[in-house]
Design goal:
Helix 6 runs antiparallel to helix 8. It is built from 15 helices and 7 strands. It is α/β, with parallel strands linked by helices. It is globular. It has a 5-stranded mixed β-sheet. It has a two-stranded parallel ribbon with strand order 1-2. The longest helix is centred in the first third of the chain and has 21 residues. 46% of the residues are buried. The chain binds 7,8-dihydrobiopterin and fe (iii) ion.
Length: 316
């Protein structure tokens, strides 16, 4: 996942959420090439478990509060206002949230619920949950020494990053549509295209607001390093969202992104993706892919990045 060279992805960003290695392995066996750290022994057939909220220690809750407070301070400047509004309605700042309580609020708002999982689960199971408006959230939290660096998504990434926008009616519908699209893409063998859509929107998306570019992607918003970087750094490209462009763009899972895609609104995102992907996949099968840092003449460019971060890393 995410990881980053300098601790980038704190959050497990999405990293793994969609990391390639994980995907392949999990799709077949429910395991990764690396040993996953969650406890998969008590799982139900749909890969859910009990959250075990009573088992969190004081250290776990204290770490949650530290992460929550650190990210919350960054939000007014960098996050989409919709995200902040939804987050506050979850009232989840006191400690690792009890999924049952949070689910009640979420269900009242948009009909989504939260289910606990031991960590990454196979794509098919993941899509089935989303299609049924259930969001899988990892139950364990990182260790204090992993504040800024984590290879798999934990409860902070999954909950803080992903759950708030599920309170937003349009985004909530988008996530369900993504789940349904995932089931279809699996059948058609086009999961890579769909995974890129998830990556560049749900995990690393930016949105153009009245007040400039803001973040809504969970992989960014759960990372203290990538949050300011995604908005302020000269290094990455920032390019207007276009469905097929995004689906053709490879991404990196080992550092901050080299390109972010910018939507105009959640309505735009939903409308662009609530179409039959069948013909689109067919067309994409014959077209070249784009590298993670490429800028095309057809792009709507907000920032043509210097890519100095990558150049700097390469020079070392
Ligand atoms: N499992 N728990 C969990 N969380 C994810 O974000 C996740 C997953 N399994 C598969 C997956 N993501 C991705 O491969 C797809 O979204 C493409
Ligand atoms: Fe994620």
């Amino acid at each position: 996942m995410d990881t980053g060279v300098d601790g980038t992805g704190v959050d497990g960003t999405g990293g793994n959420g969609t990391g390639d290695g994980f995907k392949q392995a999990t799709a077949s066996s429910g395991k990764t090439d690396k040993e996953l750290r969650g406890d998969y022994s008590a799982m139900r057939a749909d890969f859910t478990i009990d959250q075990g909220w009573d088992r969190y220690t004081d250290t776990d809750h204290a770490l949650w509060r530290t992460l929550y407070d650190r990210q919350s301070r960054l939000l007014p400047r960098y996050a989409a206002p919709e995200f902040m509004d939804c987050l506050s309605r979850l009232d989840a700042g006191d400690g690792v949230p009890d999924f049952r309580r949070a689910s009640e609020r979420l269900e009242a708002a948009t009909g989504w619920t939260i289910v606990a999982v031991p960590g990454l689960i196979p794509e098919g199971a993941f899509f089935d949950h989303l299609a049924a408006r259930r969001f899988p959230v990892t139950n364990w939290i990182r260790k204090p020494e992993e504040m800024d660096y984590l290879e798999e998504p934990d409860v902070f990434h999954d909950f803080f990053g992903h759950v708030p926008l599920l309170m937003h009616p349009v985004f909530a519908d988008y996530m369900q549509a993504y789940g349904k699209g995932g089931q279809r893409a699996l059948k058609l063998g086009r999961i890579e295209n769909l995974a890129r859509l998830y990556w560049y929107t749900v995990e690393f998306g930016l949105i153009a607001g009245r007040d400039g570019l803001k973040v809504f992607g969970a992989g960014i918003l759960s990372s203290a390093g990538e949050t300011p970087y995604a908005i302020e750094s000269r290094s990455p490209n920032r390019i207007g969202f276009e469905l097929e462009r995004v689906m053709r763009t490879r991404y990196r899972i080992d550092d901050y992104q080299q390109t972010y895609f910018v939507i105009d609104s959640f309505e735009q995102l939903f409308e662009a993706t609530f179409v039959d992907f069948g013909p689109i996949y067919q067309r994409l099968a014959g077209l070249p892919e784009f590298g993670p840092a490429e800028v095309l003449s057809t792009d709507r460019v907000f920032t043509h990045g210097t890519q100095e971060r990558v150049r700097g890393l390469a020079a070392e």
